[in-house]
Design brief:
By secondary structure, the chain is of the alpha+beta class. The chain is 38% helix and 20% strand. GO terms for molecular function: ATP binding; DNA binding; DNA ligase (ATP) activity; metal ion binding.
Length: 600
C-alpha cells in the first residue's frame, strides 16, 4: 500500500479533536487496508499509526535521533544551511511541517533527483510502498556504535529522497516520536469494529481480546483474517503480558456498600512495583504494569519462582517490595526503584533485597482462571506457591464492617504499606483485565483536610526557574486524562517537593521531549515557557481539590468551573505507568464530590 494514501487520512486526523470523527476517519483507512491488495501491510499500518514499529508489548526499537540530527539531514539533502532550517522550524513550530514546506518549495521549482530503483515514479506523484518505508525505518532503528550518526544522516536523506513533501512530514514525526494525532487504543478498537464487523457494538469482544493479548497489530490482523470468531478464540498465552486489572477509589464509608454490602477481603497495598509473573517450564518472565519485560532486574525473584512455584506453567500477579537485610521491614518505593538498571544487577541484588508478595492467579496449567471468583483464585494461588523469605502471599483479612476496615488500614500503614486494597468476593468477583471497576477499591488515606489519595499527572509543560533554580525547569505543568474525549487537560502546576538533583534530572529528561507547540490532544489555556511531549508521569499529593478558573479539567464535559489541587507536592516519578493510566478527569470529579461530602 502506498504511504501517500495513508497520510491523507493522517492529515484529517491531525485536523480534529473529536473522537467520533477520528473513529470514522480511521475506519475509512482500515477499510482500505483490508482490501486484498493491501492486507499484507495492515499490521504495519496499525503500528505506524501509533507512531511505532512494533506493539507496546515488544521492545520498541528507538531511533536514537534528536531534532538536531534531523536538521543536519535536511540541510544535507536540500543544501539549505542549518541555521535557516532552524529558523523555519521555529517559525512553523514543527520539524515535520518545516521539512514539508522546504520540499514543496523545491518541487515548485521542478528540480529533479536521482531515485532508488525501488521507488515507482509517475508524472504526478511518488509512490512509497509501506513495506519499503517500514524496512528503511527498521534499518534506522538498528544503527548503533561508532560512525552511527553519519550513517543515520545518510539513511535519513535517502528516506527524504523517497518521500513526497507530505509523507516526509509524517515520517519525521514518527522518527521523533512526535506523531501527535491523539489516537488512543480504544479509538483504534472502535474503528476496527466499525470497519471490519460493520458495527461499533462488537467493540467489547475486540477489547476483551486486546486486554489479554495487548498487541493491536495482532488483533487487527486476526480480526481481518478470522472475523469475530477468531477474536473470541484468543486466550491467555504464557509470555504475553495481560493488561492488569485496576482499582477505583471512593469515600471509605461507602466501600462496603459498593462491594455488595456484605463481607469482603482487604489486603495490604504494598509500596512497591506491581508485576505479572509468567512461568513456562523453567522460563520465567516478569512484566511491569506498563507491560514491559523487567525480568533482568530481579534475578532473585526469577530463581525463587523457579524453585517454589509448583505448576509447570502459570501467570500470577504480585508486588515486589524492597526489604531490610533481615527481611523484617518493608522499605518505600524509592528503594525498590533503584533496582531499575541494566548494570550492576548482582550488586544491587545484595544491596536491595526484595520480596514478591503474590496476590492473584490468572492462569495455571493451560487453564484460564479469569472468570473464577477471587476466593477460588486465591485458594489455587496458595496451593501453587511454597512461601519463603523472597516470595510470600499478600497479607489479607476478611472484613465484616467499616470499623474493621479502618483498623486494618491503620495496621497496614504502621507496617509500611501504602494502605489497603478492598476486594469483592462474590461469584462475580472475576478478574477484569484492563478494567477499572468497583470490584477492587483502594484506600490510602482517612485524614480530613488532606487528599485521601495521591494523583498521577503527566507533565505537559514547564517554566524556567529563577534565582537558585535558574537554568532548571520549575514549576511543571501537569495534566490528567479525560477518557471520554481522549484529551489531556491541564490540572495544576507543581514546584514543591523536588530536590535540586530531582530538578536537574527532570530538566535533562524533559529537554529531549521539548516540542514547539502543544499536541492536539492537550487542552491548556495557560502558556508555559516550554511545551513537552506528554510522557513523564509524576505522583503528587496535595491539601485538597479546589475550584480554579486556571484549570482546564472538566471544561470539555461542560463544567465551566475547572478543578485543581491546592498545595501540590511532588512524591515520585511513575515509570510503571503509561500516559493513559494516569488519574482521569472523571476520577477528579468523583474525588471532589467525596471531599465535599466529608466536609458537610
Amino acid at each position: 500500500m502506498d504511504f501517500n494514501k495513508i497520510i491523507s487520512y493522517y492529515e484529517k486526523l491531525e485536523s480534529t479533536r473529536k473522537r467520533l470523527e477520528m473513529i470514522e476517519i480511521l475506519a475509512q483507512l482500515f477499510s482500505e487496508c483490508i482490501k486484498e491488495e493491501n492486507r499484507k501491510d495492515f499490521r504495519k499500518i496499525i503500528y505506524l499509526t501509533q507512531g511505532r514499529l512494533v506493539s507496546e508489548i515488544d521492545d520498541f526499537p528507538t531511533f536514537g535521533i534528536a531534532e538536531k540530527m534531523v536538521i543536519q539531514a535536511i540541510s544535507k539533502f536540500t543544501g539549505i544551511a542549518n541555521s535557516n532550517v532552524k529558523n523555519l522550524i521555529n517559525k512553523k513550530g514543527d520539524v515535520g511541517e518545516a521539512l514539508e514546506s522546504i520540499l514543496k518549495r523545491r518541487e515548485g521549482k521542478k528540480q529533479t533527483y536521482s531515485l532508488d530503483t525501488f521507488v515507482k515514479e509517475t508524472k504526478t506523484e511518488k509512490i512509497l510502498e509501506i513495506s519499503r518505508l517500514y524496512s528503511e525505518l527498521e534499518k534506522l532503528s538498528k544503527i548503533k556504535g561508532d560512525g552511527s550518526q553519519d550513517q543515520k544522516i545518510n539513511l535519513l536523506t535517502g528516506i527524504f529522497r523517497l518521500s513526497s513533501p507530505q509523507s516526509a512530514k509524517f515520517i519525521v514525526k514518527i522518527i521523533l516520536s512526535d506523531l501527535r494525532m491523539g489516537i488512543a487504543d480504544k479509538t483504534i478498537l472502535d474503528s476496527l469494529s466499525l470497519s471490519i464487523t460493520g458495527s461499533k457494538n462488537n467493540r467489547s469482544f475486540i477489547e476483551h481480546a486486546y486486554n489479554i493479548h495487548p498487541d493491536l497489530g495482532y488483533i487487527a490482523e486476526k480480526l481481518m483474517k478470522e472475523g469475530l470468531e477468531g477474536i473470541k478464540s484468543i486466550t491467555i498465552q504464557v509470555g504475553i503480558p495481560i493488561r492488569m486489572m485496576l482499582a477505583s477509589r471512593i469515600q471509605y464509608t461507602e466501600i462496603q456498600k459498593k462491594l455488595g454490602g456484605g463481607d469482603f477481603i482487604a489486603e495490604y497495598k504494598y509500596d512497591g512495583e506491581r508485576v505479572q509473573v509468567h512461568k513456562k517450564g523453567q522460563k520465567i518472565s516478569l512484566f511491569s504494569r506498563r507491560l514491559k519485560d523487567i525480568t533482568h532486574q530481579y534475578p532473585d525473584i526469577v530463581e525463587c519462582v523457579n524453585n517454589q512455584v509448583k505448576s509447570e506453567n502459570a501467570v500470577f500477579e504480585g508486588e515486589i517490595v524492597a526489604m531490610d537485610a533481615f527481611f523484617e521491614k518493608m522499605l518505600p518505593f524509592q528503594v525498590v526503584s533503584t533496582r531499575r538498571r541494566k548494570y550492576d544487577i548482582e550488586k544491587m541484588k545484595k544491596e536491595v533485597p526484595v520480596c514478591l508478595y503474590s496476590f492473584d492467579l490468572l492462569f495455571e496449567n493451560d487453564e484460564s482462571l479469569l472468570n473464577l471468583s477471587l476466593n477460588d483464585r486465591r485458594k489455587r494461588l496458595e496451593k501453587m506457591i511454597t512461601p519463603s523469605e523472597t516470595i510470600q502471599f499478600s497479607n489479607k483479612k476478611m472484613i465484616h464492617n467499616t470499623q474493621e476496615m479502618v483498623e486494618y488500614f491503620n495496621e497496614a500503614r504502621k507496617k509500611g504499606a501504602e494502605g489497603i486494597m478492598n476486594k469483592a468476593i462474590g461469584p462475580d468477583s472475576v478478574y477484569k483485565s484492563g478494567n477499572r471497576g468497583f470490584l477492587w477499591i483502594k484506600l490510602k488515606g482517612l485524614e480530613g483536610g488532606k487528599m485521601l489519595d495521591t494523583i498521577d499527572i503527566v507533565i505537559i509543560g514547564g517554566s524556567w526557574g529563577k534565582g537558585r533554580r535558574k537554568g532548571l525547569l520549575s514549576p511543571f505543568y501537569g495534566a490528567v486524562y479525560n477518557k471520554e474525549t481522549n484529551m489531556f487537560e491541564f490540572f495544576t502546576r507543581v514546584g514543591s517537593g523536588f530536590s535540586d538533583d530531582d530538578l536537574e534530572q527532570f530538566t535533562d529528561r524533559l529537554k529531549k521531549l521539548e516540542i514547539k507547540k502543544p499536541p492536539k490532544n492537550i487542552i491548556c489555556a495557560d502558556t508555559p515557557d516550554v511545551w513537552f511531549q506528554p510522557e513523564i508521569i509524576i505522583e503528587v499529593m496535595g491539601d485538597e481539590l479546589t475550584i480554579s478558573n486556571k484549570s482546564d479539567v472538566g471544561a470539555s464535559l461542560g463544567d465551566p468551573r475547572g478543578y485543581s489541587l491546592r498545595f501540590p507536592v511532588y512524591q515520585r516519578i511513575r515509570e510503571d505507568k503509561n500516559i493513559y493510566q494516569i488519574t482521569t478527569t472523571q476520577e477528579i470529579l468523583e474525588l471532589f464530590e467525596i471531599q465535599n461530602s466529608q466536609t458537610l
